[in-house]
Amino acid sequence: MSKYIDRAKVLRAIVEPHYNCGQSVILPFAEELGIPEELVMRFAGNFGGGMKTGALCGAVSGGATVLSLYGLNDLDTLADYYARFRAKHPEAIDCKPLLNRNAELGNEKKPFCDGLVYECIEIAEAMLREAGKIE
Description:
By secondary structure, this protein is mostly helical. Helix content is about 70%, strand content about 0%. The chain has one domain (about 5-130). It is built from eight helices and no strands. The longest helix is centred in the last third of the chain and has 22 residues, at about 110-130.
């Protein structure tokens, strides 16, 4: 298992303070880059719940942010990242339709969102390794 996913699992288990999906994706990588937790908590504070409006999934936003933190911020990279996510979730990359589909399947929200966090970390980590940004 990935050290980034391991760290995210710890974060997702903490009740207070709450780490939203975006913060939980970003923080394990930010710690390695020396970016303070307080800064991540502030700049990703609105990522949860699809920017608090059901829009782009916070975990997806978090993964895109991680790629950018490592200098992978070109359109082709972002398109590849979204395509990898959509390969598992062709219905949407937005929070509200993802959650609606999960509810239709009779699943609980928290485990589903936790799973999205781990998937987005997995995708970002793979892309960073492929680009030679991490070992």
